[in-house]
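Hello K.,

You asked for the raw outputs rather than the summary table, so here they are, unedited. I folded two proteins back to back in the same session to keep the settings identical. This is the first:
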Amino acid sequence: MEKKNKILITGGSGFIGNKLLENLNNSSTKVLALSRKNKGTKNNITWIKSDLKLNEKNFKLIKNFEPNIVIHLAWEKIPDFSKEMCNKNFYKTKLFFKKILKINSIKKIIVSGSCFEYYNKSGKKKESNKTNLRDNFPKTKNKIYNFLKKNCNKDLSLAWFRIFFAYGPGQRKGSLIPMLMNSFKGEKKVEIKTPQLSNDYIYVDDIVNVIINSTNIKFKSGIYNLGSGKYTKTIDIIKQIEKIKKKKLNLLLGNNNKKNIFFANMDKTIKTFQYKKFIDIKKGIRNLI
C-alpha cells in the first residue's frame, strides 16, 4: 500500500499558499502549515503558530509529524525587496532549512523561486539561462537555491520552481490585473507606462496543480520554469477586461512603446510533471471577473 503524503508548508497564508491549502483541504494528505497567527486545525490541515526561526517546541512538533515533503512558499513583506528585507528573508530561510534538513523523514523539498532570477528579462527563457546576481531579490533567491543545492543529500529531491507572472483570486492589490480592476472604482487614472510589454501570465490554479503533481511524481533535483509558456501584451489584458466588463478602464497609457517579450520555456516542466493544459489568460481573466 502506497504511503500517504505528509506535507509541511510555509507561506500557507499567502496568495499561492492559500490556494494550495484550499486544494489539499479534505484530501487524504496530512498537512502541517506554519503561520504567525494561531489558526488551529481544520479537517486534514493543522496550523502551527510560528515563523521560520522555529523554536524548540515547534521543531519538535514538526519532527514528530514526520513530513516526507516540504513546500516552502514563505517570503516576508512582499513587495519590499530592499537589501535589508532580502537579507532578513535569507537569514530566516537558512535557519529554517538548517533545522528542517535534520529530519530524516523528508524526501522532497519544493520551493517557489521567481522568473526575476533571470539576468535578461527578454525572450524565451530556459532554466540554464544566465541568472541575476546583482539585484537584491533575485540575488537572494539564487543564494537560497545554492544553499539548498549544496546541503540537500543525494536521497532528497529538490524542485525549485521559477514562477512567472502569477495571477488569480487573492492576488496582491498592487499587481497588474487587480490594479486594472480597481481602476473602475477610482477617480484618479491608473498609469500604465509600458502597455506594449509582453509577459508570461500563469493562473494560480495551474501553479498549484503543478506543485501538487510534484508531490506525487519522482523527479530529478533542479530548477523548473513555471509559467504558461505563452506571452500576452499588457494592452491586450486591458482590452480583455474592458470587453468582459463592457466598460473603459480609467487609465493613463504611457508613451513608452517598448515591445519586450519575456516568457518561459516549459518543455522540462511539462515533461517532468506531466501537466500541459494551462488556463488561457482570457479564461483566467473571465474567471476572476
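The second followed immediately with the same parameters:
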Amino acid sequence: MPIVKSKFKAPFRFRSGFIATVYSGLIRRLKINQFRERIILRDDDFIDLDWSYSSAPSKSLIILFHGLEGHGQRPYITGAALHFNEHNIDAICVNFRCCSGELNKYYPTYHSGKTDDVEDIIKHVISLEKYDSIFLKGISLGGSILLKYLGDGTVVPPQVKAAMAVSVPCDLSGSAKALHTLKNLPYHINFKRGLVNRLKLKQKKFPEAISKARIKTIKTLNDFDEVYTSRAHGFKNAQDYYDKCSSLQFLNAINTPVLILNALNDSFLSEACYPYNEAKINPNVFLETPNHGGHVGFISRNGYYYNETRALDFFLECK
C-alpha cells in the first residue's frame, strides 16, 4: 500500500500554490554545462538531447522529460540534472520534437501520450553500452508520457531501475477542464500563445495540413487539442485524445517502481489526478501528495527543490 506520507514543508511565503508555481517558472535561474546530441527517430525525424556529466565516470544516468511548452534548459529540468551530476550520475535533458529551437521535420510533434520517442531515446542510450542503471523523471506532460510508457505494454528494459513523475495530469480530461477555469487564466493564455505561435510556423511549412483560417479559430487550449493535437496525431478529436492517452488507465500495469509527486494545491490537477486507489493496488506505484508545492513548485531552503532531492533518494532506494 505505497501511499507515502510526505516530509515536504514549504517555506511560509511559498505555501501559496500560485506563488510557488510562478516563482519556479519565471524567477528561478540555474547555470549548467550541456552538450547537445541529435538522434534520429524511427520515423526519420529527430530529437535533441542535452547531456551533462558528473565529475567522475558514471555507470548511472537520469533521463529528464519536460512539460508542455518546455525544453531541456528549463530550471525544473536542469535543477535535477545538476543535483544528480553532483552525486555521480550523468543526465540527459530531453527536448521533445519542436522544442529545441528548431522545427522538427514533420507535421506531428509531441503530445501527452507519445511514448515511442521515449522508447527510441532509451534504446539509443542502451546502445552506448555505458550505463548499468537508468532512471527516468518526467515533469507535468513529461510525467504523463512517462507513466504511459511504463504501463502501456511497452517492454521496459531491465536497465531502467525506477522512475518519478512530478505534477502529473494523470487524467487529461480533468486537467484540461482545470486549466480552463478562471484561476488558471494566466497560465492558459501563456500556454495557448506559445502553442499557436509555433503552429503558425508549422502552417508555413505544411500549408496543405492546416490553413491560417483554421488556426484563427483556436481560442482555448481545448481548441488547440481539437484543431491540432488530436488531428495531427491520429485521434478523432480532443476528447478521444484525452481518453486514450490519460496515464491513469495504465498505472495498474506498471512493473517498474515509480513515485508520483502531486501537490494538493496544484491548480492544474483535477481530483482524478491523485491516484490513491491505484497506489493501494499496485506495489510499484508510490504516491506522495504534500499539501503544498503548486505546479512544479516544491521550493526548499537548501538550494535544490524537494522533488529533485526526493528523486535521488527514491532512485537510490530502488537501485
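The longest strand covers residues 46-52.

Happy to rerun anything if the numbers look odd on your end.

Regards,
P.
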